[in-house]
Queue: 2 jobs
Job 1
Amino acid sequence: MSQEAGQGDKKGHSVLLRKGSSNKMALKEKIVQIYEAFFQGEDPSAGNPNFWDELFLLKVNTTFIETECEKLSGEGLLSLKENFNLMFYKAVETLKQDNSIRTANAVHTLCALVRGIYKKTLKDYGFDVINILIGFDSAETVIQSLIESVNRFLNGDYPVALKQLILKFLLVLASVTDNISQNTLLEYILINSVYESLIQILANPVSRQTLGVDAILVLTLLVQYRKYESANPYIVKLSILDDELALTGYAEVVSVALSDFNRDYKIRSSEQQTGWFSTLANMVGNMFVAEEKEVAAVRANDSVLLALYEAIHLNRNFITALTHAHTPSIPSTPPSSPTPDNSPVEDKQVNPLENSQAPIEPAHQPTNLLVTFLEYSSVVIQDTKEQTRYNNARLCLIILTCIAEDQYANSLMHDINMNFRVPLHRMPMRHRKAKFEASPPSRPLVCALLDLMVEFIMSHLMKTMPLELYTRCLGICHRVLCYQKKCRVRLQYPWKNLWTALINLLKFILSHENHLVKRANIFHICSKIVNIFNLFITYGDTFLPNPSSYDELYYEIIRMHQVFDNLYSMALRYTTSEGDHKESAARLTNHLINVRAIVNHFTPKVDSWAANNHLSSLTEEQVLEVVRASYDTLTLKLQDSLDQFERYTEKPNESAFFTQLVRSIITDVRKSVSEINIDQQTILQEVSPMPPTP
Amino acid sequence: MARNYSSEGDLVTTQPNSVNKGCIFSLSTGNMGNGAEPGASEVNGNYKIGDACSGDMYRFKTSSLKTGSRVSFADLDGDGNLIKTCSESELDIDPNISSLNFGRSLSYSAIERTKNTELLTHVCAKTKPYDTHSLSSLDRLSTSPIQEEVAEMCEQINGEESELEQNDTESLDEPSEQILHSSHSVSPPRTVTKGKPPLPNGKSKHRPGSGKQSSWLLRLFESKMFDMSIAISYLFNSKEPGVQTYLANKMFSFVEHEVDFYLPQLLNMYIHMHDVAEAVHPYVVHRCRSSVEFSVKCVWLLSAFSADVLKPTWKTSQGLKLRNMILNEELSHHSHSHKHGHRRNQSHHITSNSPLNHSMNNTLSPSGKKTHTRSRSDATGIYIKQSNSHSTSTLHNYACGDLASGRAFDNGCLCYQSSEGVKNGLTGREMNCNCGAPRLTPQIEFIKALMSIGTRLQQLPTKELRGSRLMAELAMLNLNLPARVWLPTAQFDHHVVRIPHTQSVVLNSKEKAPYLIYVEVLECENSLTSQVPNKILENTLRYTRSEEDLATFYHHGNTSPRDFSVYGSMTDFDDADCWSQEDDEIIQLHLSMKSIKSCDSISQFSIESSTSGDSKDPVYIAAGDIRRRLSENISAPKGKFERDPEDPSAAALKEPWEDKVQRIRESSPYGHLHNWRLMSVIVKCGDDLRQELMVYQVLKQLQTFWELEHVPLWIRPYNIVVTSNNSGMIEPVLNAVSLHQIKKHSKMTLLQYFEHEFGPQNSEEFLTAQKNFVQSCAGYCLVCYLMQVKDRHNGNILLDSEGHIIHIDFGFILSTSPGKNLGFENSAFKLTHEFAEVMGGEGSDMFEYFKILILQGLIVSRKHMDKIIPLVEIMQTGSQLQCFSKGISTIRALKDRFHLTSTEEQLQLLVDNMVESSLNSLTTKLYDGFQYFTNGIL
């Protein structure tokens, strides 16, 4: 197109812009035309002072911008730098105005530009994207102004849809590169913080319902930026956050997301269990679909879990929020449907209504994040064969490790006044049906945690056992016991379940020794198990609920003495032969001292008692009697640092896992934010004060 | 009209009927009946009214509605003389204003008291009354509102009017008349024409020679004996506005908390007795102005007792009006900073009264006169102005009441955050809010929040659901604390900082869901003016501890200064720092120090053993020791009940208070503060506590009298706060569990339980506990008899850790009893053989002592009966309470139970009979059985 033609064209469309606003077809045509002019290196705005004001009143065609960017060559992209910079700059300028339609369009334009240009550079061109997009010279000031506007929109009294759009834009910014740490654009957002606005959204009980999920997602992603290398102010700020309301809001957002998943799972599993014949047929058909759907849901929860992890890991005050109650959302009104002018007054009016429903629907009982999370974990850890689920389960166990390590979290979990019913899901296995207790007993939270661990230990005894997850699981049990020992908490818990589970685990490892020894250091795991027993044996007086439970412990050890004997002989074998495991095997034999002492001390006594009384087999009660009578002659060795554990650190061990996790979350986010183009119209409708022009 | 006191033998006050015929109205300062017969009324020989009021004879006082007029009874000197002092500055009165006030009050009193309205208007037009009574009693108080009221009064009190009080012609030689002389004046009567500036009359005047004729009633009122209890009963009994006004004025000189004790009575009269309302209105307004707590109490009591007013008429709606006035913050300090172009005291006067006048005027408008109309328009204008300014102020605190906002109890006042406020907070000086934020809202919202939790709990079916819901709700509430709120049951000033929600328990009740909460408060100088403490987060163990253990922390070795600043380490921020072990080591250190202190040496071993990891010598322990320690630990007597999900309160209540305070203090982020206190309160929702409140008052009186007369009967009145007619708060009795819980958890008889708790029967502890038991039992037997307390099952009788029994739940008293008044429990009081067993059995020394105590108690109570009966009698006025279901005969029966006419021998016989019959009462056993079968109460 010649310069003249361009001029004429411009005049033509500026005329159209002024008076032809009723002609939709022509307008659509025009915005594309304007874009075309831009992409041809022209500046249609020259000489028209109202050009930009008018342009941003037009509906943005984001796909066009993105596909045009796609078409450009590397040089083409560079040559259009001026135009991109101008467009970006003008869009940012427009954000300063208070016209919601222009604002929304400007944000859409920004999204399209950022995505279009980054998509290009992702491939093979090593351009400096910021230069093309904003221009090096002005980048700092432009982004500063952009963030100022973003904060203004997030904090101010603006339509919810606009706030949502702004958050989506932030997500677009954060998700342009696969590796978030390479996203240099974020460097500017570190300087100009959006943190306060995000926290304010979370602190507000109304806004967090509609914006909370996106807000914590933005926050979580920003926290990931160069997490291991440099000082990220978001990490610092999040770690010292002490606004109780914001923390509670954060917890509530996570809790709502997880409980939505739990509810769906419950519905699905109860559907499967209803009719016997119909479901059998359905199951075969639905299994894969349902499975896929569930995996997708699990994936979706990764980001929420990561947010939970960061909060727990970074912020100690967050622990308080773990047990703060939330009223779960009602399924019919998912949090994604915003009510634009939700004022606190309205909220208050809603409350009594909701209260009147409370007695009818027990599901509306307030729950808290920890209960929800434990239930969620019980679902996720059921099946770890699939990689997504495995990763999710791993993340759950990491979070639980952090919780079990925290003094205050432990004190909350052990508080006998804080009893909760935690519905734990159990996997159907050959010897038992899928069991879900509708109304589990109300107990301190740590009981549910221990149940969950026992359940995990028992349900993954298979050839492909996730040894790494087992290590974590044992670590959690160990941490909880250390707390109990230290603080002398006598928990009313059927410890026998744990002992049986641990002994079964030992038995399984022994029977699959040859296979497992190649995969991992089984002696290390066995040592961990044995040390848990050692804790019970030597420090049982500080945390066991009653004397008879101590007797029971001995009874279990004596009863299963063969397992320990075999373990000892296996360990001995490896200590004698040179190999990788010599040292850890030696350590294991050392750890077994007390258990062996018990076995050696009591077994002959029990046998002789049986012989004296001419009995071939003894009842439990009889054995216990012998045990009680013979304590005094038994001496135990106090082992070192039984109650010490290596504290969880993310940096060397887990960083690879988290980098990978963030990568996959970024991909998901990018996919999800690309959908915002579709509902552009609805956003415009909500945003505009008047009915939109036809 | 006149009330006759002759039965009491004290005073006779008569108000002549005939006098009033020609009189326009009787005036608030006394029986202002103006003699139509001039000259007939000579007062103290000084001068004749007739002379004074030549011609028209229209004497009036401004209506008692006027604040000022009520103060016309000034302080009196020993001889009954009025001491009048006058500060001239306050007499500089704008005639227009005063006439306006005058007119309004006139119109009001006119309608109420006279038919001769024409005369009224006439007088009104002609007279510009004023007088200069600055009363010494008020000077003493010398608070600004009072002075303003005095000033107002001065405008309205006319020199002549004060003399009117003495011209009750018929009762000249009756002592009762002498009450009225108090506002005598020597100055000759004057008729001031309108518009003429008032003449100050600044000399203090004494009227000599009145002592001889001093009235008995007045003497009583002046005597040292005179106290609030007498005042309240005469307020109730006297129909004479003069007496009422005098008493109301006298109240200004009483100690505030003495008056507060009778607040329920006072406000009940306010609601149901229009004349008393007029009389005490200024007092109530004055107190509301000066105290938020008083205002809040008034609001609650007024709404509670107004609930019985079925059809509010203009005569009975003043209670609600007052309540709304208080609630609308029309009586706050800053409301009279509104200037309307008048002088300060004027505008104050108008604002304080306008709503009431306004409404009065509305009701009275059909009979409106010129003056009347004028006053109404003025008042209305001001009223609207007021409400406007109010509504704008409420807009600012939209968050108030919204628990999710975190600022539910924040009235939006910023005064305390201002630099001046901070300065005052630091220097400990008082700071008054002057930004116009609503004063009452935080406290009212706080209590409302507690009550709404109760309502929500009621809808839940099981105790467990209720319990967890309660904790959840309280955790929510916690987000809004600390705030400028306090527990109304407390006796000291404080701010609520935290509610340890996990400690709260739901009490045993089927339908209602009363619950017990523990509340952490920080004591302060003045809950209203002191700074509200800052929020400290729950999980701040490390901050608080590390400050305290700074020395230890420092020597701990492995800390670097870097850890103290979060931002300082920005450049080399290491993720691991977040999880550095130091904090936990501090905690561990703290814990181990704590346990070393508390644990025995054996247990210490296992702690040390864990830390002695680096020692190379192997340590051996005997398994037997571990087992032994475990069983010792378990079997150690804990003095606790096991947790029972069906009865969560039992374990919570059984825990000794000291232990609980200690435990909660340790876990509280505020626990290290020196002014930290733990309190507890029972929140009842859906229950009417008005009867409880009345019983509390009666018990309190009885306790005082018994103490006064040194009879060792023991009772424990527990404080009640009524917040509406179906909600309230109760101060729990500490360290006490119900007999039912004792029986259920210990499975022993009462005597066995005593032995278990206090030792063998001849031990010191047991004997003390037994003595306590007998004394408390006697106290409560007497209470149960006098007040006819019913529903005495074992769930309603507590036993405290010293052996006292304490009766709770006074839902069935006087005329009412459970089971539709069928008289299940027809014995005088509950006395079971089990009780007698603890006392040592029938015939034992302690049992005899028990009977003697009852007798002594009864005799003492009888002596002071006239201070007990009015408490109940006044509450009966207009009451729909169940306990008054038999109307006035309830009071008569109550009086009869004091056996005024019986000799001591007869009383002794009576007590013996009552004890005997109660002990052998079949119905007591039946009722316990009934409770067991229906409610499972042992």
Job 2
Amino acid sequence: MDPLRAQQLAAELEVDMMADMYNRMTQACHRKCVPPHYKEAELSKGESICLDRCVAKYLEVHERMGKKLTELSLQDEELLKRMQQSTGTA
Amino acid sequence: VPGVPGTEQPLPQLKDFLLVYNRMTELCFRHCVSNLNYRLLTGQEERCLEGCAGKLVHANHRLVRAYVGTMPSILQRRAQQLQEPPPAASTDPPAASGPGE
């Protein structure tokens, strides 16, 4: 695969993963901030502020996880290679 | 579809990595972040996240190691079972041609 194609695919993948992250975030924040009473359609002020903060925190967590994962994933590479060798040739 | 050229997912490793990343974020967020009175993470939340991230990554390492250790023998056994002659048939007529003949 030529590098440009690989780069394009990686970019598409990143978009997909951002969408996935977004879905998880909305689900998590809804769970944390909107109690399932549903007495009225409008968001209360508390719920609104909670959602704002929740998004801010979720994105912060996402960034930290990224750093931590990159830091530790250098060890992952070795394991992945071994996994491919043992299952790919079976 | 694995094994069929043209339908294989490109960059499977990258996709797996990114999925793990998103799952980790979700899991650790749900478990560690409870104080939504502030926009910034509290000290307690930060410590929890640190532990959660490390724990998940090390758990993943362990799982991979266990998988790598166990899977080959399972695959080998499966391959052997496929090569063995099938058990004696009932009153059904024999198949016209078997695989590998």
